[in-house]
Each structure stands twice: as structure tokens, then as C-alpha cells.
Specification:
Elements lengths: L7 E6 L7 E9 L4 H15 L8 H21 L6 E9 L2 E8 L19 H11 L3 E6 L5 E8 L8
Antiparallel strand pairs: 1-2, 2-3, 3-4, 4-6, 5-6
Helix pairs in contact: 1-2, 2-3
């Protein structure tokens, strides 16, 4: 597979007053180059689904930060066990969920702030951004022995103005 993340559409449905609903998957090789490729693919899909306006700017920014951190963690920590990392984007009435799946069984934990470390706070950042946006995140095991780390954020209501 090339370095480009290609969305594999699963389903889409136009809803009045909000983004187009659907589920898309972005499989990429477990390499550092896949982080910006996936982030751009997710951004383009979010904009295509109708989240280009000011109303959605903070949501899109939060989702792209989350995607960058989760894909970055997957390719950094799981690449030996995972030739491919898959990001899934699901847009549903009232929420957007991003998840990243890899084949590593290790369940990561968010590290507390440690001023002596220069890294290792990606999952803490994801949890913080998700909670601040009013969303939820978690880690689940896959049937194949790997894991899926996901974050679900609410879509701003129609009357939201900025």
C-alpha cells in the first residue's frame, strides 16, 4: 500500500442541519510518515462531511490533535507488532468518534505530568482535550488481540455561534 490514507467508506447519510453521517476507515503503514497523512485524510473527510464552518472549527481542531497523538503513539509503540494502523472516523447524530487500532496488546495508561520527561504525555493530552470538549475516551481490546483507542466528541448544536 502507498503512503496515502484512503478512506474506505462504510456508510453515509445526509442529515438536515448537521454533518453527513457515516463511518470511514483509513488504513496506513505503521510508519511516522503516516501520522500527517492520516491527519490530512481525516481533516479532508470532516470538511467533506459538512464540518467546514466556524461552528465546527474547535471540534475539527480537537479531533485532528487526537488523531495525531493516537496515530503517533501507535506507530511509535506498536510498529514492531503491527504492519498497519487503522483510523476510523464515525460521524453520527450529535457526535464524532475517532479510533485508532493496532495489533499491540499493551493497554497504555495516561502518564501524569512529569517535568523531567520530554514525551509520554500524548494519551494524557487526548484525555484532557476529550473531557474538556465534553466527550469520552477509552481503550478496548480487539478480537485479534490488539487494541482500539477511541475518543468521542459532541457535535456543536445548530444554534452554536462563535
Amino acid at each position: 500500500m502507498s503512503g496515502a490514507a484512503k478512506a474506505e467508506p462504510r456508510r453515509g447519510d445526509r442529515r438536515r442541519g448537521g454533518p453527513v453521517e457515516g463511518v470511514w476507515r483509513f488504513p496506513v503503514p505503521a510508519t511516522e510518515a503516516s501520522v500527517p497523512v492520516t491527519r490530512h485524510a481525516v481533516r479532508d473527510r470532516l470538511l467533506t462531511q459538512g464540518m467546514a464552518g466556524v461552528r465546527y472549527q474547535e471540534l475539527v481542531d480537537d479531533l485532528l490533535l487526537i488523531v495525531s497523538e493516537l496515530v503517533g503513539n501507535a506507530v511509535t509503540h506498536a510498529a514492531e507488532l503491527t504492519p498497519e494502523v487503522t483510523t476510523e472516523l464515525a460521524v453520527r447524530r450529535g457526535w464524532v468518534r475517532v479510533s485508532v487500532e493496532d495489533g499491540d496488546p499493551y493497554r497504555p495508561k495516561a502518564l501524569e505530568t512529569d517535568t523531567g520527561r520530554t514525551g509520554g504525555r500524548g494519551l494524557l493530552l487526548v484525555k484532557s482535550v476529550t473531557l474538556q470538549a465534553g466527550g469520552v475516551c477509552d481503550v478496548e481490546r480487539t478480537g485479534e488481540g490488539g487494541k482500539v483507542i477511541w475518543a468521542s466528541l459532541p457535535i456543536p448544536p445548530e444554534d452554536a455561534t462563535d
